[in-house]
Amino acid sequence: MKRKTRLLIYGAGGHGSVVLDAALRSTDFDVIGLIDDDPALLGKEILGVEVLGGIEILKKDGPLSDAAVVVAIGDAKRRKEVVGRVERLGLGFVAVIHPSAVIGGDARSARDRFSSRSPSFTPERKSAGMRSSTQERSWSTTA
């Protein structure tokens, strides 16, 4: 049986919750927590997964150093900055691909990419409603 990759998701906002949902549905990952630099989110749970803290909890030889990271921040400039900070810590990145995504046989995915297949319905953060995206999306954590 294939060993699941321990995964940390950096970003606990809207994009983070979409990536988290895909990772939880995948058989490839053991999601161990969320990372977000907003102290107001510390200890909160999103889809049953706790926000563990900010970047300060990531240490090269710390207890989370064996986990892979996916940076799930929608703002490209901020995402690029965070990717650089995580890279300097020597942590690895992975691609999170939603299990329902259709990927061609000769397609390759970057190590730091999230892919979803539409339509995707994601939980609203402040209401019980759902929002829908009707286009296929792919976000890179590097630009």
Please report the total strand number as a whole number. Answer: 10
Mean pLDDT: 78
- Count of helical segments? 2
Poorly predicted ranges (pLDDT <50, ≥5 residues)? 112-122, 124-143
The CATH class is Alpha Beta
Listing every helix as H and every strand as E from the N terminus to the C terminus, the arrangement reads: EHEEEEHEEEEE
Strand content: 25-35%
CATH-derived architecture = 3-Layer(aba) Sandwich
CATH fold label: Rossmann fold
Cα-atom radius of gyration: 15 Å
Query: What's the arrangement of strands in the largest beta sheet?
Result: 3-4-2-1-5
What about the largest sheet? Answer: 5 strands, mixed
Give the topology.
Blueprint: E1 5-10, H1 14-25, E2 29-35, E3 45-46, E4 49-53, E5 68-71, H2 76-88, E6 96-97, E7 113-116, E8 120-123, E9 130-133, E10 137-140
Parallel strand pairs: 1-2, 1-5, 2-4, 6-7
Antiparallel strand pairs: 3-4, 7-10, 8-9
